[in-house]
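Task: sequence in, structure out. Protein: 4-hydroxy-tetrahydrodipicolinate reductase.
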Amino acid sequence: MKRVLIAGYTGAMGQKAVDLVAGMPDFEVAAGLAPSGKQGNLPAQAKIYRKLSEINESYDIWVDFTTPQAVFENVQFALQHHMRPIVGTTGLTDEQVQLLQKLAQTEGVGGLIAPNFGMSAVLLMKFAQLAAEFFPDAEIIEMHHADKKDAPSGTALATAKLIAQARQNSPESANSEETLAGVRGGDYQGVKIHAVRLPGYIAHEQVLFGGPGEALTIRQDSFDRSSFMSGVKVALLKVAELDHLVVGLENIL
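Result:
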């Protein structure tokens, strides 16, 4: 029986993760971590921790759906205590990911950091990577619910990185002058990223490619958080096989 600790179990994604793990054979929700300490939908026998310093035993898997401010310390703690992390929280910097990967190697613990667990989002990133070989000029629009803590989303940033890596030609430089600061969005190696935060949205992304006389748009939409659980389930089933800290769900499919 794999014993799972879910960090951020009171949040929208954390609650879905609790239900998923509770319904999987050979897995159990053994503990939850959240500052509120509320029972939520945790099983009655699960331990509840309000902070890292209260955790007094180790678990097989650490599932993290917390906040950008907490995730680095959480994953560091999990690796140091030989709990395999499955991280859906975004906001980690490239430097933090590298530090965690080095720590995982030192501790001999495998795990997964996934910018997105939705299959449609994973496919969008792969399609965008392919398209970037032929359309070096690209912009990204990502749309999320108003409560999302970080911008841009981890998925949008991961998409921009894949586009930048795959381009064979340099993008054209836009000559437009901003008459309103920031209106052209953020810039990752020439890929503009625009972040929308509005009520009613869940998670959506468009990648726009432009070329002489033509354009290509790739879009994915997540209308319910349950759509992410298929990817979390794959991670739960495969994380024990990993011998290092993997970044990207597509790398274990």
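The first strand starts at residue 2 and ends at 7.
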